[in-house]
Amino acid sequence: LATNYDEIANAPFAPLYNRALLAAYAPGSTYKMVTLVSAMENGKYEYGEIIIDAGRFDKYYDQGGFAPTCLAYSDSEGGSTHGEVDHVKALEVSCNYFFYELGDRLTIEELDETAKALGLGEHTGVELFEYTGRRANKETKKNTFRKAIKAINRRAQIVFESEDGEDGYDDEIALPYDMEANIIDIEDDDYGIFYL
Questions:
Q1: 29, 74, 76, 80: the active-site residue
Q2: 122-128: which pairs have CB atoms within 8 A and are 24 or more residues apart?
Q3: Rg of the chain over CA atoms, in angstroms?
Q4: Is 29 tagged catalytic?
Q5: What is the reported pLDDT for 1?
Q6: What's the rounded mean pLDDT across residues 176-192?
Q7: Neighbours of 64 (CB within 10 A)
């Protein structure tokens, strides 16, 4: 390593980069276990229950044309399926349709709670620098939006408004004005207003 360190360090695929701790990857089919645990924990799937793999999950097709398929269905001529599938077979053959069905039974909050309990999107506690992944939840969406605004204007003050009209202040920043005041003066060159 000492004789050709520069060559290795500058190699196109960065072999010295610690992907295990510093990179973020989509979880892919490993997330199926999170979905199954969440469905069982929340009473949305009974142990041993059979789900018929129809190949194409088209429950929401009329709402935008999205109908994901099981790999067995999309890879075969004529559209074969896994047929009757319980949780053991679903994990064994990685049946997408089975997990589309379970995911449809769950709320995003239930799935997020299970993912968090299993340590996804959380620091590991390993005493090394690590990149922490994200989970799909309202807080992640808010943080992603916050970072995008701050990248444009680091001085931006951010206030979120919920669907019921309640103000939610950015936890990290104290606002420079009183949101309860009848009139709030905002300088044109300091602020932008974004509507979602």
A1: 29
A2: 126/21, 128/21
A3: 23
A4: yes
A5: 58
A6: 59
A7: 7
